[in-house]
Design brief:
By secondary structure, the protein is α+β, with helices and mostly antiparallel strands. The protein has eight helices and 14 strands. The chain has two domains: 142 residues, Nuclear Transport Factor 2, Chain: A (Roll), CATH 3.10.450.50; 148 residues, Nuclear Transport Factor 2, Chain: A (Roll), CATH 3.10.450.50. Strand 5 and strand 6 form a beta hairpin. InterPro entries: Cyclase_SnoaL-like (IPR009959), NTF2-like_dom_sf (IPR032710). It comes from Planktotalea frisia.
C-alpha cells in the first residue's frame, strides 16, 4: 500500500520547479505549491515568515543571484506521520547541499567565483496537496568557511564538506517497510529519553553506548565540526557541550518522523540552556538561550549509526549580542 507517495511527489515537483525558477518567478512557484496559510521557519537572519513574497525577497532571490548555476545535491529523502501530533499529519524530510558558483555577495559574505555548497535540511508538512509548513535549516557558517572566513575562534571537531549516509540508500523514492520505520522511531525515542535531559547518571560514554554504535559518526555544524566513534564524540563535542551549559530545558519538537532506517526531528526551539561555562570562545553567561535544531539519523540494527545535525549558531551568538554576519570584514588571508 502506498503510504507517502503523493507527499513525496509534491516535494520533488516543488524542488524541480523552484530550482529551475529565477528572479520574480520564484514567488510564483512558492505561491503555487504552498497553502494559503503557510509558515516558513529558517535560521538567522531569516527566522519565521508567513508571506511567500517575503520568503522570496529575503532568501531565495538574493541567494540565487549570489549562487549562480545552482543545483540541488540531495542525499536524503523520506517521509512519515508526525509522532508529536495526533492529527495524522505527514511530513517530508530532505537533506543535502545546494551547490553553485559564488559569484556575488550574500549576507555580507564576499564572493569567491568558485563553487560552494550550502548544507541544508528541510521538513515540509503536506496538507491537502499543499505545503502548509516548512522548516528550512542551513549552515551559513559552513559556507563562510568555504569562502575563507573564520566565524568562530575554534571548533572541537573536524571541518569538511559532509557526505550523505554511508550506504547511499537514503533517497526513499519508494516507501519503506513500515515495520522498519517503527524500529527506527523506537530507537530515536529511547535515545531522546537517555540523552535529552543529561540526567541519566551514567558516565557519558556508557550513556551514549545505550543507543549508539561504537563507530558512530556525528556530522555536526560548522563551529563544532564532525566527529567519529563514541570516544571522540564524547571528547570533541558531547562532553565539552555539556560542560558549557547548565539548566537545560526539556526537549520540544514540532515534528518527529521515521521511515525505513532514517529519522529526523526539529523544534522551534528544541531546547534552552544557559552557557555558564562559555561556548565557542564566548565568555560564560547566565542568559537562557534557545537552540533551533534539525537532526537526521540513520539506524543500523538496533542502534544509531550516523547523525547529521543543524544548529542555528548565528542565532545563538545573536542572543548573546554577537552579530557574526554584522561583523564581516572580509575573508582571512
Amino acid at each position: 500500500m502506498s503510504q507517502f507517495q503523493s507527499e513525496k511527489r509534491l516535494i520533488l515537483d516543488y524542488y524541480a520547479a523552484l530550482d529551475a525558477a529565477d528572479g520574480d518567478a520564484i514567488v510564483d512557484i512558492l505561491r503555487s505549491y504552498t497553502a494559503n496559510a503557510y509558515t516558513w521557519r529558517a535560521f538567522h537572519p531569516f527566522h519565521l515568515q508567513t508571506d511567500v513574497h517575503e520568503i522570496s525577497r529575503l532568501f531565495w532571490q538574493p541567494f540565487r543571484y549570489a549562487i549562480t548555476r545552482m543545483q540541488r545535491r540531495m542525499d536524503v529523502l523520506f517521509a512519515g506521520t508526525n509522532f508529536m501530533g495526533d492529527d495524522g499529519s505527514v511530513w517530508v524530510c530532505s537533506m543535502g547541499h545546494l551547490m553553485g558558483l559564488f559569484d556575488a555577495p550574500w549576507l555580507g559574505i564576499q564572493p569567491t567565483q568558485k563553487m560552494v555548497m550550502l548544507r541544508y535540511a528541510e521538513f515540509h508538512k503536506v496538507v491537502d496537496g499543499k505545503i502548509a509548513e516548512t522548516a528550512f535549516y542551513f549552515d551559513i557558517p559552513h559556507l563562510m568557511m568555504q569562502a575563507g572566513y573564520s566565524p568562530f575562534k575554534s571548533q572541537t571537531a573536524a571541518h569538511m564538506v559532509q557526505p550523505g549516509p554511508a550506504p547511499h540508500d537514503a533517497l526513499l523514492f519508494d516507501d519503506a517497510d513500515p515495520a522498519e520505520g517503527q524500529k527506527t522511531m523506537t530507537c530515536i525515542n529511547a535515545m531522546i529519553s537517555d540523552l535529552g535531559t543529561w540526567q541519566k547518571g551514567l558516565p557519558l560514554e556508557e550513556e551514549l553506548a545505550l543507543t549508539w554504535h561504537d563507530d558512530m559518526i556525528w556530522w555536526g555544524p560548522a563551529g563544532i565540526g564532525a566527529t567519529y566513534t563514541i570516544e571522540r564524540y564524547a571528547k570533541q563535542h558531547s562532553g565539552p557541550f555539556r560542560a558549557a551549559f547548565s539548566d537545560r530545558s526539556g526537549t520540544g519538537h514540532i515534528a518527529r518522523i521515521a521511515e525505513g532506517h532514517y529519522s529526523g526531528f526539529f523544534g522551534w526551539p528544541n531546547f534552552k540552556a544557559r552557557p555558564t561555562g562559555g561556548f565557542l570562545g564566548l565568555p560564560p553567561s547566565d542568559k537562557s538561550c534557545e537552540f533551533r535544531v534539525i537532526d537526521i539519523y540513520r539506524r543500523e540494527g538496533d542502534k544509531l549509526k550516523e547523525n547529521w545535525i543543524f544548529i542555528d549558531l548565528l542565532h545563538f551568538f545573536n542572543q548573546l549580542d554577537v552579530d557574526i554576519l554584522g561583523e564581516l570584514k572580509g575573508p582571512t588571508t
